[in-house]
Amino acid sequence: MKLKNIFYLLCTSIIFGCVSKSGHTLLFVGSFTDGKPDAGIHVYAINTDTGETTLLHEEKNTINPSYLKIGNHGHFLYSVLESQLPTHGKVAAISVDSLSGKLKLLNMQDSGGRNPAHLSLHPSGRYLVNSNYTDAGISVFNINSDGSLGPHHQLLEFKDSSVVKGRQDAAHLHSTNFSPDGQFLFGQDLGADKIRAFKVIDTDAGPLRLRPSKEISVKPGSGPRHFTFHPNGTFGYGISELSGKVTAYQYSDGDLVFLEDYPSYATNQEIYRAADIHISPDGKFLYTSNRGPKEDSIGIFSIDQNSGKLTLVGHEPTYGKHPRNFCLDPSGQYLLVANQFSDNIVLFKRDRETGLLTKLSEEIQMDNPSSLQMYKYRVE
User: Fold this and answer.
1) Cα(71)–Cα(145) distance, integer angstroms
2) What local confidence, expressed as pLDDT, does residue 5 receive?
3) Is residue 229 part of a domain?
4) pLDDT average, residue stretch 333-348
5) Is residue 360 part of a domain?
6) pTM > 0.90
7) I need a labelling partner for 234 at 20 to 30 A (CA). Which of 95, 286, 323, 365 fits?
8) Residue 232 scores a pLDDT above 90
9) How many beta carbons lie within 10 A of that of residue 5, not counting itself?
């Protein structure tokens, strides 16, 4: 082995605190850059024994890479670009060097509208779906064998509204989620108070296409924002931004049947800004984030494995302002929160038995963090 390769491997091992036989974990952070080219994507190594983080890479000259999605066993990263601007946004494909954490832009494609806000991957790993918020729509991309993106081959656009003036005067597609079996896609339309369901058409004759299936109405003024499926595939949970509620559903064959609503906030608010929602890897606990204006917190709920219903465990402050996004590490040991307005990412140790969170002293300082993705790489 060449001397420089030995030196590189030695340095890499030091960075990761000596990579264990089980592998190492990387944290990818997307952010808002005030609409100007800047270092908008950061890559960190995280020591899952201590919670300590090490900055490995900053991707410069990116404009508002406000939402990220890791794909294909961690080899590629997908990012929206130029979100919250008056022109069409873009979707970028980026390769990941899993040892060094360095990123390399593969290509960019037009998102099909203004303000791309969310990305989802088909379980096959061959297709990427983008949600445009301002020009409400869903664009579908083929992922090439090298990880790059083809131009969107389907664009579905929506015109609709609901009852909250100024927020629901038009349709706003905030996110999409594929069903666990990949047969359906569900789009959260914050502006129309609807979950839009689509049948996935994937044949050998051509790329994946979406066929409108049904519209699932939510309570007027809710503003559905994000959604997650339970690991067992039989339950789904949505977070509504404008009502501050979590909604539990029974899922079966492309249909969501309402079970119950739950307050995401600890106290009643005049204005709600509920944001994100995730389930622990073991399926026992559900977490939500609440972005002020008077409460910045993580809601913690236990999940009844038989009925899918939730029981409130408690709330944990996020030690920052406007927790737009959060994530759990693949092992379920940690929960990380991106506080956009206070420019910090806070790490919590998670009790796997109770679901409760304990703040660690480790904290990442960076401007306007908005999206977190984590991936554990195995040693081959």
Assistant:
1) 12
2) 42
3) no
4) 98
5) yes
6) yes
7) 323
8) yes
9) 9
